[in-house]
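Posted in: Protein Modeling Q&A

I'm a second-year student putting together a small comparison for a lab meeting, and my supervisor asked me to include a predicted structure for Phage shock protein A (PspA) family protein. I've never done this before, so apologies if this is the wrong subforum. The sequence is pasted below exactly as I got it from our records. If anyone can share the structure token output, I'd also love a short note on what stands out.
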Amino acid sequence: MKRMGMIFRAKANKALDRAEDPRETLDYSYQKQLELLQKVRRGVADVATSRKRLELQLNQLQSQSSKLEDQGRKALALGREDLAREALSRRAALQQQVTDLETQHQTLQGEEEKLTLAAQRLQAKVDAFRTKKETIKATYTAAQAQTRIAESFSGISEEMSDVGTAIQRAEDKTAQLQARAGAIDELLASGALDDASGLARDDIQSELDRLSGGTDVELELARMKAELAGGSSAQKQAIEGGQGGQTPAQQPQDTPRFDKQ
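Accepted answer (user: helix_wrangler)
Welcome! Here is the predicted structure, written out as tokens:
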């Protein structure tokens, strides 16, 4: 089972390597970094919004505190110490809220500064990655094009291999058809096959053609013997005169046959 699992993982890894395009992987990584940068920017915006709300609340509390202070002064001026004491008590409570809000405001402001700095650094990294990504993609594309051109010239690419295979099959089929046509012509010439056109060869004519071919061979052989023996021109003419199908040795035997008739 371990061996089967290892084989399966090896084949799956090989299939993934073939299917993987580094350019697509780089684009996907860049997209993920952009999404992370957007999240950081949204975080900065959220913290800034919270800080702004605290500032508005602080402004309102400080305005109320100033108003209560004025009311206490007026109450003292009118001889209403009790009203002045109430106004100052409320102002003291508001001041405690102001202090708490100011502490939160400082905390949010610090977080905002940190997130802003992180966003700027991340932006710089994303920009650098984008530049590197485009450089790698351009280099990969150029290398891929060079490899395809080299494979095309060497004939080892899949496309050129398919073309070469098709050409080889066409040549083999052409040679087979030529051989078959030659074999059929020889069989027709020898009479082993009947002519499909319906014009059957005459057996007598075939035999005459065969005998005529044999006679031509005998005549040629006699001519060569005469040349080698240094025969006279008369002998050569006698040999050539026998092309009608009779040799000089046969002529004396034919004459008595005509006399008897």
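A couple of things worth pointing out for your meeting: Residues 203-248 form one domain. The helical segments are 2-19, 22-77, 81-154, 158-190, 203-228, 233-241, 251-260.
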